């Protein structure tokens, strides 16, 4: 028996856990991939070919990049022992070890620094916060292109921000030179169907889409509605009900950052001067 593909209306409503969301007037396969995104944390041992990773990197390099500076790089990590060590740094996230590939995206000014040195040219502008910011943004744009490409091929992904728990240890593990900073990891592999992960609803657009100017006051009601909708899904998954409690706890204390409160110090140690 062939399964009927979910309608565009169903997919958009699923993204908000709201059956009253209007059906889209336009649709295509790219929009379907975007709306069915979900983080995958259980993987099959099936290999992902080097050719597939090359294609994902090609997609990543197709993302916008500020002034065509291309101040990012990515390290492909396949070695099981190295992935195990990186998983430990990231708080013991076992999916880093399960999946065959971990891509570590970096903000990378070492390449431009080498280019400037080779040409005897100054590169003082790279030492300002703006430039570092560009490196992080470029890496994120590239990685998100890779995510969409991977999911269009039936692969699963999940970001690993916890590599920033100990940037110095990650740099040592990956032999990163000065002025290269590991911004996050991206696990890539074949999803384990037994995980049963679901699309996670997002805040209503009335909380995030503003017309002409920002309005904070109007957000209380849609946020309260979201708390109820996602709470029911959390309950189905055996998780604590409250998104509010989870969110406030995540940013409630320095300790809740799991070492990432040291980010400015870690960037400085990696050669990012942040004037």
Automatic annotation (TrEMBL):
It comes from the Bacteria. InterPro entries: Flavin_OxRdtase_Frp, Nitroreductase, Nitroreductase-like. Residues 37-189 form the Nitroreductase domain. CDD domains: NfsA-like. Pfam families: Nitroreductase. Keywords: Flavoprotein, FMN, NADP, Oxidoreductase. Belongs to the flavin oxidoreductase frp family. This is NADPH-dependent oxidoreductase.
